[in-house]
Amino acid sequence: MGIVTMLVYLVIIMAIPLMAQAKVKKAFKKYSKISNSSGMTGAQVAQKILHENRIFDVGVEPVKGQLSDHYDPRKKMVRLSEDNYYGTSVAGQAVASHEVGHAIQDAQDYAFLRFRSTLAPAASTGSNMSFIFIIAGVLLSLSNLVLVGIVFMSAAVLFQLITLPVEFNASSRAMDQIVSTGIIRSNEEKETKKVLNAAALTYVAAALVAVMELVRFIAMYFFMDE
């Protein structure tokens, strides 16, 4: 790979996640300023959906930071950033319902969520160790070390790919829940979908970059063996 080609490639893999992050921040900023029609806070939205699904062992609590919302399956806790927890925005209700979507997946033993949880330790190790082996292999001209790095990286890439159906399914469940429970009382479905789609784009971008990097190192490995 020539220097110019390499520079173009690096610009592309840096630009993809940055563009995705910019899109989600733009959507969140816009719809966090628009109040939802129900007047419910993100915490109330989350609690209502949990109770409607007869899930009583999952709590909801605020967490510091922006866009720090997540579901912790080990602690059985939906954590919402303070703006979403206390606020009554369209963005907040979208994020809250999405995180509860993960709690519903957990309660229903959703296969992809279980697989992702099982894969998480290997993916974490693979992410941390892969570049060490690959860089060492390149510097020492040892293709076997590069191959070990590729194996480690494959676990991390698989984790990124498994994350996609988990996140898209959680968003689908979120939309179903806020409609069926009557949380959306006016024409908010379109706006809510925009927030959820923007958030999903960040996972697509991460998976795309991970696959591109894996393919690049596999190609490097085969060129080393020539």
TrEMBL record:
Q: What residue ranges are annotated as transmembrane?
A: 6-24, 119-140, 146-166, 195-223
> What organism is recorded for this protein?
Salibacterium halotolerans
Q: Which InterPro entries match?
A: Zn_peptidase_2
Recorded protein name is Zn-dependent protease
Record keywords: Hydrolase included? no
Q: Which Pfam families match?
A: Zn_peptidase_2
List the keywords (alphabetical). Answer: Membrane, Transmembrane, Transmembrane helix
Keyword Membrane belongs to the record: yes
